[in-house]
Structures are given as structure tokens and as C-alpha cells.
Amino acid sequence: MDDRPSLRERKKAKTRAAIRKATYRLAAEQGWDAATTERIAAAAEVSPSTVVRYFPVREDILLTDENDAVLEARLRARPAGEEPLESLRAVVLEAVRTALDEEPEETRLRARLMVEIPAVRARLTETTAATGRRLARAIADRTGRDADGLEVRIFTAAVLGALREATVHWAEHGRADDLVALLDRTVDTLKNGLIPSRPA
What we know:
Blueprint: H1 7-30, H2 37-44, H3 48-54, H4 60-63, H5 67-76, H6 84-102, H7 104-116, H8 118-143, H9 150-172, H10 179-192
């Protein structure tokens, strides 16, 4: 069986990539307000209607990609019996590490815009929820629970929300720290709880 993407799928992926690349370039050089649909289309050499067809919400150009499917597949491939929190730690940290290695400037710009642009921050909450629903299915299958069950929904939302907040913290503090280490520390906090600091 041939699992390779069809020509049509490859063309669609190429177009999405061109739109993203043009958007990041415009936002980096001229600011998010300058990255209008029309200017993105011109820079990507597509029509404005094509941009809207691929990304009905402009902020999604920054915030959505094909990684959700990869995250889900990697989560399902984790060792049987591994604690769900450790499974999520492994797959998310691997994805962030890859993004920082392969697209460092885009990753940093996205984080900065999350802090600076309210519409991007608001949309991030929605896209994180969509990612959470997908990963919840994998967590449910691995734990023998209902994907729509309260416990699975709370667990998945809590983990992804905490990781999102850690990324915002990273961006607010100049993106100078090691993001992967911050995310790792975030999972540790979820796992161990908040230990009171001792007064000096």
C-alpha cells in the first residue's frame, strides 16, 4: 500500500507552507498589522481567496500546522503502561525541540506575537482546545477511559494549558531561557504540586 501523499495533497501542503512563510516574513519585517490577507497573498503568489480558503482565521496561519496529527501518532506510540503525564511530556518536548531546531526564528516570533497581539493570544486558546480534544482521544484509548469523560478532559486541558502558560512566560521574559527546560519544569510542577517556598 502506497502511503505517500497524493500530488494534490503535496500541492496543498506547498501552498500552506508558502502562505506561512510569507506571513512570518511580513510580520517580522513590518509587524502583524501589516500582514494583511492581501499582502500575504501577494507575497505568497496566491490569491487572497486562496489564503482565506486555507486559513479562514488569519491568526491560524501562525498557530495551526500539521503537527497535531504527528503529536497524536507519537502519543499513541509511547510505551504501554507509561504514565499519561510522562507520555505528554515526551511528545510535547520533542515537538518543541524540533521546532526550535528547524524554525527558531518563526518559533520565537510566534511566541512574541502571542504576548503582543490580543487576537493571537485569544485564538491560541481556541487552537489549544482543539489540540486537546485530539490528544484526549489518544489518552482515553491508552487508559481505557472515555475521551469525553470529565477526568480525561480536565487532565488534557490542564497539561496543555500549563504548557501554553509556560510558553507565554518565556515570551514575556525575552525568550532568553531554554524553552524546553521551562516546559520540562512545568510538567514537574504539575506532577509534584506547588511546594511552598521557605521564607528567607
